[in-house]
Amino acid sequence: MVRSLWSAATGMIAQQTNIDTISNNLANVNTTGYKTEVANFKSLLYQTLQTQTTTANGDPKPVGAQVGLGVRNSSISSIFKQGSFRDSESDTDFAINGKGLFAITGDDGQTYYTRNGNFYLSTNDGNGLTLCTADGFAVQDTRGRDITFNKNYTASNLTAGEDGQFYYPDGNNNPQPLGIQIGLFQFNNPTGLEKMGSSYYRATAASGDAINEARSTNLEKSTIVQGYLESSNVQVVDEMVNMIVAQRAYEMNSKAITTSDEMLQQANNLKR
Q1: CA dist 60 → 20, 65, 89, 234 (Å)
Q2: Spatial distance between the Cα atoms of 6 and 2, rounded to a whole number of angstroms
Q3: 190 CB-near residues (< 8 Å, 6+ apart)
Q4: Rounded to the nearest 5 degrees, what angle is found at the Cα of 219, between the Cα atoms of 216 and 224?
Q5: What is the pTM of this model?
Q6: Contact at 8 Å (CB) between 114 and 199?
Q7: Is the separation of the CB atoms in 118 and 135 below 8 Å?
Q8: CB-based contacts of 229: which residues, under 8 Å, 6+ apart?
Q9: Considering only CA atoms, which of 112, 93, 87, 184 is closest in space to residue 142?
């Protein structure tokens, strides 16, 4: 019965983490580019009570007796499913239709990735314009360089095509390519990306190296939509159902602890 106490306790701890994950999803239901997270579980060590042996008649028993010792959280993975688009008032907001991610230069000089296309144009040291995030991190182009524009350009006249190529009107008001293209990158295992907060991800050995869509021919290319943002892919109804299931599982594990306690109490009362 002591085994049952600890097994039920691991179940309560695992379901608490599950509730924490669901709560985080609901908290980020309006976060641009946020991807739903799912808590996964795995069973703990099994204790062998009886190995595979023979019956009293000498016939082999095909199955032994093993009892599990509980559960734990194996991982919390992100579901990179496409979120819905919502209209934006800003011409520097971009939504990705596909599997790509934007590349961002962090304040430490490292490259991070995000689905949040809420960008701004800010002045740089050369009095030009730099496309950056709300945190001031520069957005990278297809060559891994920070996207900057000449100081003579008017921000409101800059447009971008579906491939992320920027255009600026000439003297006849005809859009001309500037040779600057927003970089989009994919990963063989996006769930292996390390979450850094603020909707940023960092590449790891589990995710693999970033694959540049502009230089890869065997990828399904993503497209960019200017003037839109990608909403969170959190489904509130699904999360509420998951919360109810997690709550009931937590209650059942609590009942198992109470039942084990009552059984121990009954055993202690046998001597009276």
Answers
A1: 47, 14, 74, 52
A2: 7
A3: 78, 80, 99, 101, 201, 207
A4: 95
A5: 0.84
A6: yes
A7: no
A8: 32, 33, 85, 86, 88, 93, 94, 95, 116, 117, 118
A9: 184
pLDDT band of residue 216 (cuts 50, 70, 90) is confident
Residue appearing with tokens 């795995």:
42
63 pLDDT higher than 80 = no
What's the pLDDT tens digit per position in 24-39? 999 999 999 999 999 9
How many whole angstroms from its chain centre is CA 5? 34
Q: Which residues lie below 8 Å from residue 7, measured CB to CB, with a gap of 6+?
A: 68, 69, 70, 71, 256
Q: Residue 51's CB: how many other CB atoms inside 10 A?
A: 9
Question: Average pLDDT of the chain?
Answer: 89
Task: Locate 194 and state its tokens.
Answer: 């390390």
Q: What is the pLDDT of residues 217-226, one digit of tens each?
A: 888 999 999 9
* CA-based end-to-end distance of the chain: 20
According to the 3-state scheme, what is the secondary structure of the chain?
Answer: CHHHHHHHHHHHHHHHHHHHHHHHHHHCCCCCCCCCEEEEEEECCEEEEECCCECCCCCECCCCEEEECCEEEEEEEECCCCCCEEECCCCCEEEEECCCEEEEECCCCCEEEECCCEEEEEECCCCCEEEEECCCCEEEECCCCECEECCCCCHHHCEECCCCEEEEECCCCCEEEEEEEECEEECCCHHHCEEEECCEEECCCCCCCCEEHHHCCCCCCCEEEECEEECCCCCHHHHHHHHHHHHHHHHHHHHHHHHHHHHHHHHHHHHC
Chain centroid to CA 261: 40
Question: Taken in order 21, 23, 25, 31, is the CA torsion positive or negative?
Answer: negative
